[in-house]
Amino acid sequence: MKTAIVTDSTAYIPKELRDQLNIHMIPLDVIIGGKSYREEVDISANDFYELVKKEDKLPSTSQPALGSFVDLYESLSKDYDEVISIHLSSGISGTFQGAHQAQGMVEGIEIHPFDSEISCMVQGYYAVEAARLAKQNLAAKEIVAKLDELKQSVNAYFMVDDLSHLQRGGRLTSAQAIIGSLLQVKPLLHFEDKVIVPFEKIRTRKKALKRIVAIFEQEVNKGEPLQAVIIHANREKEAHEWKEELQETYPDVDFTVSYFGPVIGTHLGEGAMGFGWSRKMG
């Protein structure tokens, strides 16, 4: 059985790595100034943050059209027997549901939608692992079982720099946003039951990042091999400096740097930082 691996653009897997592992990507859209862009195709993260600075109105986002899934799966059916389609959490987007709907509309190929229950490069961990296992000729059901196993060790925390994005998106009241900004509150967020929820409110950016590292250290102390990713919203220099600092402290962990692209960046805002990890597989 030949298995194709699909994910969506919010995994933010570098194109070179996608090409190397033969991971197929379906983009979500971001709408800026009335114009729609397919992230990772029509617009890069850097271009997105520059464009947003020139706009008075916040961008909006949309999931892939159902027809995009159908077209991709039909194209893959010419060369593959099965597809594992890995998507951002169903609690924050209808993308996974779109894959599920398309599943019953395509003949000649077996489709396995997979809810990562998370997003960004931590979601990408699932696609990378699935692609590695597909190269070993494992059947889709075996790969999905391995991904479910990986899910037990996946975690991520996010710190937002600008509370106005959360407030406009309905996650904070206006009063909370005003008071939080005055107090320099940096809310830590994480995924729980597929949705983004507050974890703790920390007074400063520096303390928020330290708190994330303290949580991560508990995982390091369990002694399992880990991979970790620092995720930034247009703060590349800070992300790489943080990576160097962490690599020195935890030399056995495999660290990388990634970014919040247009779709996730729309909801978190420029300056957000994230940190995610999982057990290293294989």
Question: How would you describe the overall organization of this protein?
Answer:
With 282 residues, this protein is of the alpha/beta class. The protein has helices at residues 15-21, 45-53, 66-76, 95-103, 120-135, 140-151, 163-168, 174-182, 205-220, 236-249, 262-268, and strands at residues 3-8, 23-26, 29-32, 35-38, 60-62, 82-87, 110-115, 155-159, 186-192, 195-202, 226-232, 254-259, 273-279. Strand 1, helix 1 and strand 2 form a beta-alpha-beta unit. The two termini are 21 Å apart.
Summarize this entry quickly.
This is DegV family protein with EDD domain. This protein has helices at 15-21, 45-53, 66-76, 95-103, 120-135, 140-151, 163-168, 174-182, 205-220, 236-249, 262-268; strands spanning 3-8, 23-26, 29-32, 35-38, 60-62, 82-87, 110-115, 155-159, 186-192, 195-202, 226-232, 254-259, 273-279.
CATH top level class name of the largest domain: Alpha Beta
Oligomer: single chain
Domain unit count: 2
The largest sheet has its strands arranged as 10-9-8-13-11-12
**Low-confidence parts, pLDDT < 50 over ≥5 residues?**
175-180
* Largest beta-sheet characterization: 6 strands, mixed
What distance lies between the first and last C-alpha atoms, to the nearest angstrom?
Answer: 21 Å
What pattern of helices and strands is seen along the backbone?
EHEEEHEHEHEHHEHHEEHEHEHE
Beta-sheet strand percentage? 25-35%
Structural class: alpha/beta
- Tell me the total number of β-strands: 13
Principal-axis shape equals globular
Kindly report the CATH topology of the largest domain. Hypothetical Protein Tm841, Chain: A,domain 3
What is the count of DSSP helices, taking H or I runs of 4+ residues? 11
What number is the mean pLDDT?
91
- Please compute the radius of gyration using only Cα atoms: 19 Å
CATH architecture of the largest domain: 2-Layer Sandwich
The residue fraction in helices comes out at 40-55%
